Amino acid sequence: MARVAMHALHDPASVEKMIEGFGSKDPLPAWTQFLNNYSPIILQVVRLFERDPDHVSDCFVFVCEHLSEKEFRRLRRFDPSDRALFTTWLRAVVRNLC
After folding, report:
1. Which one-letter DSSP state was computed for residue 56?
2. How far apart are the C-alpha atoms of 61 and 21, rounded to whole Å?
3. How far apart are CA 87 and CA 23, in angstroms?
4. Which ranges constitute the DSSP H helices of the chain?
5. Within its chain, how far is the Cα of 40 from the centroid?
6. For the whole prediction, is pTM greater than 0.70?
7. Tens digit of pLDDT per residue, the chain (98 long)?
């Protein structure tokens, strides 16, 4: 997994482009970018709730399945014009799914 500079995770233009990609005819590149960039954050939150490595893996898959269902409905709900950073918003969504 490629390391992403922290500022790239918070860049509103990059986040907005990724969110738009979820609604495109081919959302796979946006989903791949999302997983490459934000999997560490998802895992960090999951590990707050689960300690067993098998449960961490199961919960990670559960979260990703729910984030991608219904054409990425949850992820497309993020409003880049809002004051919250995407990473802050994502942490809250993942906590709710755990």
Report:
1. H
2. 21
3. 20
4. 6-10, 12-22, 28-49, 53-76, 86-97
5. 9
6. yes
7. 445 555 567 788 899 999 999 999 999 999 999 999 999 999 999 999 999 999 999 999 999 999 999 999 999 999 988 888 999 999 999 999 99
